[in-house]
Amino acid sequence: MKTLLPALTSLYCISATAANVEIVFSDISSLRGELYIAAYNSADAFTQKQAFQSQIIRVYKSNQTAVLADLPAGDYSVMAFQDLDANRTLNSNMMGIPTEPYGFSTNPHLMGPPSFDAIRFTVGEDDMSITINME
Amino acid sequence: MDRRDFLKNMSMAACGALVSSAGFNALAADNESYYQQFKRQLKANPILRGWEGLSADIAPREFTWQGKLPDALVGRQFYRNGPARAVLGNQRYTHWFDGDGFVHRYAFGKQAVTHSGRFVRTKKFNAESRAGRFLYNGAGSVIENARPSKSAETVNTANIALLPVNGDLWALWEAAMPYNLDPTTLETKGQVSLDNALDGVPFSAHPHADRFGNIWNFGDLSFFGQPAMVIYQLNSQGKLLQYKMVSAPASYVHDFAVTDNHLIFYFPPITKQHGAETLIDSMQWHKDQPGQLLVIDKNTLTPVMQVPFDSGFVFHFGNAWQQGQQLVVNACWYNNADVMLNGVNSVIAEQAQQHHRSTAAQIHIDLSANTARLQSTNHEMEFVQFDGRFTGKPTAQQFGVYAANTAGRADYNSIAALNTESGVLDLHRLGNDFLTEEPLFIPTGNKPGEGYLVNTALNFKEGATYCMVFNAQHVSDGPVAWVKLDNYMPMGFHGAVI
C-alpha cells in the first residue's frame, strides 16, 4: 500500500484543480433525438466555435443530465440544442430563430444569440451542478 | 402591484368594452396584490365581470331560443375567441390581452343553442397548468419570478381570433403560429406549420379572404426587432401558396385591408424601446410624427406605395376597393394610440370623457398622385364587419359595435349597421348595462348586406352573457332570436361562423 500512496496523492492533486460539472437539462418536452452540448472556455474560443469539450447524448427523459468531466478551474459557457430530426444541425426559420429546443448556461433573458460573457459561469475546485432550461 | 397596472387593465377595455370612472377612487394601498384588489373591486363594480375570467372548460349546455331563429341559420356554429384565464394561483394578470385563449362554441339548433367552451391547450397553457402558476410576463402584465421566454412562441396564448380552414378551426395570436382546433370538440390538435422556414414566424390574427378564394395574412417581424413583415398567400384550404418578407416600418400593426389587387397597411407612429419589462411598456407614441400607409401589390408581394399619413391608430379595417386609381379603405380610426398605450392616463385624471373611441372612417388613396387623405365621421364604431362576398367591391353597409349615449364611459353598448355612403344609421341600443362584442355577418340571399348578424353581449348587472341574432337589414328592430346563458363570460375579441 505504501508504494501506492505517492501515486494516489498525485491523482488527488490533479483533481483538486479540476471539477466535474453536472448539467441538468430541464423541461425537455420531446423525448427523442440527441442533445448536442458544447462547453467553451474563452470568448475567443466561443466566437470561433472551438469547444473545450463537447458531447452528444441521447434524450430519453425530461430532465436529462450530462457531466462535463475534469474541467480545469476557470470561466466557461455552455450551449446546447436538441437535434430532433437527426440532421446534426440546429434548425432555424427564415428569421434565423431556432426551431429546435436550445439552451444556454445561466439561462439568460435575451432574444438573439448570446455572447460568451452573457452565459459565463465559473468553475472552481469543487464539483458543481448547473441547470439549462430547454423549453 | 401599483395603481397604474390596475388601471391599465381597464384602459384596454376601451377596445370593445369600457372604462368606468366609478370605482377607481377607492383603490387599496400598494401592498394589496392586484389579485386581491380586483376581487374586492368586483363586488362593488359588477362591470369588472367582463374581465374576471374563467378557470375551467365549459361543458355543453342547451338554451332555448327566445324569438325565432331564421331557418338559414339552423345548423350553423358560431365561435368566439378571447382572453380568459386571467388568474392562476393567486396571481392575476394586470392586462386584459394576456389571458389564455378560450374558444366558445354556439351550435345553432332550430329550438335551442348548445354552448360549450374550452381553453386552447397552448404550450404556455400546459406548462403553466402543470406549474400551478403563471410562468412568463405577458404583453402587458409583469409576473412575479417570471421565467425568461426564449421566443414569442413560448408565450403564445392563441387568444385573439379564429380562422375556419378546411374543416379545422385555427386559433390565432399575432406574434406566433396558429393552433389547430377540432371545431366540434374544441380540442387542440397541435400547431399549424405552413413551412419549415416559417416555424416560429408570426401569423397575425386578421387573415382576410378575397373574392378569388385566396387567404391573405401578414406576420409582423418588428416583434423580433426587424423592420419587416412576412406576407402570406394561402389557398382557401389553408395551403401556403407563397410568402415573402417585405420591408415595413417597425411599429405596431394589428390588421390590414384587401382589395382585388392590393393589401393596405397603416403603421401608427409607435416605436418599441429596448429594456422595458413588457411589450406594451416598450411602446412609445410619437404624436408629432406621421403614420405610414403601405400598399402592397398582391401579384408580386412587393410594396408599390408608402406615404406618410395622419398620426393616429387603427386596430381594425373594414372593406376596401379600387375605383380607377383610387383605393377606398374603411377603418376604425383613433386620433391617437391611447387605446393601446396610454388610456390609463386619462382615467387617473378622472377625465373619462377623453377616452377616445374609434370612429368609422375612410382612407382615400390616390395611387397615381401618391397621396392619401382621411375622411372621418362622428360614428363611434369598432369591430367592423361587412358582407365578405363583396370583398374588394364597393359596399355601403358596415356592421359593428357602436357607442350610443354612453355618458362618461368608453365602452360600446349598441349594435349598428352604418351606411357609409349615405350616413344612415340602423342602430339597436342594448343599454348601458351591456358590453357588446363583435357582431359577425352571415350572408343569405344575393344582395350586398343581405343576411344576419350574430353577436354576444354581457349584461354585467344581471351577470349573464347573451347570444343574439339580428336581421342585418333591420338592426333597429332588435334581435330576432336570442338566448341568455346561465353565467357570464369574459369579454372576448373575434369570432367565426361555420
Automatic annotation (TrEMBL), chain A:
- Pfam families the record matches: DUF2141
Q: Which domain of life is it from?
A: Bacteria
Q: Which residues form the signal peptide?
A: 1-18
InterPro entries for this protein: DUF2141 (IPR018673)
Q: What is this protein called?
A: DUF2141 domain-containing protein
Keyword terms of this UniProt record: Signal
Automatic annotation (TrEMBL), chain B:
Q: Which InterPro entries match?
A: Carotenoid_Oase (IPR004294), TAT_signal (IPR006311)
Q: Which domain of life is it from?
A: Bacteria
Family that this chain belongs to: Belongs to the carotenoid oxygenase family.
One of this protein's GO BP terms?
carotene catabolic process
Checking PROSITE patterns in the record gives: TAT (PS51318)
Cofactor: binding comment: Binds 1 Fe(2+) ion per subunit.
The species is: Alteromonas lipolytica
**Which residues does Fe cation bind?**
206, 254, 316, 494
Which UniProt keywords are given for this protein, alphabetically ordered? Iron, Metal-binding, Oxidoreductase, Signal
Name recorded for this polypeptide: Uncharacterized protein
Molecular functions (GO terms) = carotenoid dioxygenase activity; metal ion binding
Cofactor(s) recorded in Swiss-Prot or TrEMBL: Fe(2+)
Signal peptide start and end residues = 1-28
Transmembrane regions listed in the UniProt entry: none
